[in-house]
């Protein structure tokens, strides 16, 4: 373990030694000599051969040279400490390498280097992440680390498959009007409270996206591992979107359009108001005010209120959640199924 640990340490300090050796070439020569011995020892370990004891002793003697003269009785216990520290260095280094490999694979296969909390990965796409519950103890954390490997390997084949919107039994809202056979069908998954979804929607609207595809809009309220909603009023907005479509087609798009593009008299976006300020009751009042402005009378509003609380609405939301998180293994939204691909993150107009 000592020679392997020495190789790891020498590799880490290699950049600094290279810089110093410009001014003091002798240091560079000594470093290369030690590195060559360390690599030879490591290569023998990889091939399950016995490492040369000479290099191991050289390392120990270098570290303990001053102690030998002043405190010879300390040699044995300090030697054991060196062995233990060497083992720790090797274990940590191996763990770090595996974690780096796992992160890169996760980024490629799932779009985020952090599977449990995708938003924590700065290398991933611009998303509103679907986070899982954080492990509560070291045993759960270790188990979760290995489980994530399984998720990655399950997701790798998805990178090479062709997606079809028709293959997934989503509960959706058709926002493109009459079906046009020449147009491709797109599934567009979003959360009313997600700021990235808001920007994507604005980009789509300005680019005429809804006039170029048969769009199936899937409103989805993100929940964490404990079942709490990520955004304050997303759940009630999704319920009203599904309910209003049973009264009149297009009403749900009117709701989301006002949330994503509208501002109040103070110039604050309605999405911000729903996420930060409105209580559930205030959110419902605002939605129903908009519905009234769209021509829905009191009897129509009463019917919508009844539908909002139907178990069928809850079932629709649960079914969509299962498809999104388990079948498609989506780690963040907005996500679209478009042109045979699964596109996660901000949609930018060409």
CATH fold label of the largest domain: Glutaredoxin
Apparent shape: elongated
**Reading side by side through the largest sheet, how are the strands ordered?**
2-4-3-6-7
Question: How many strands appear in the DSSP assignment?
Answer: 7
CATH architecture group name of the largest domain: 3-Layer(aba) Sandwich
Determine the fraction of residues in helical runs and give it as a percent range.
55-70%
Write the element-wise H/E pattern from the N-terminal end onward: HHHHHEHEEHEHHHHHHEEE
Main sheet makeup: 5 strands, mixed
Q: Give the helix/strand class.
A: alpha+beta
The named CATH superfamily of the largest domain: Glutaredoxin
| Uncertain stretches of 5 or more adjacent residues | none
- The total of helices stands at 13
Rounded average pLDDT: 80
The CATH class of the largest domain is identified as Alpha Beta
Detailed description of the structure:
With 350 residues, the protein is α+β, with helices and mostly antiparallel strands. The protein folds into two domains: 95 residues, no CATH class; 182 residues, Glutaredoxin (3-Layer(aba) Sandwich), CATH 3.40.30. The protein has 13 helices and seven strands. The protein has a five-stranded mixed sheet. A two-stranded antiparallel ribbon has the order 1-5. α5 crosses α6. The protein starts with a helix and ends in a 6-residue tail after the last strand. 29% of the residues are buried.
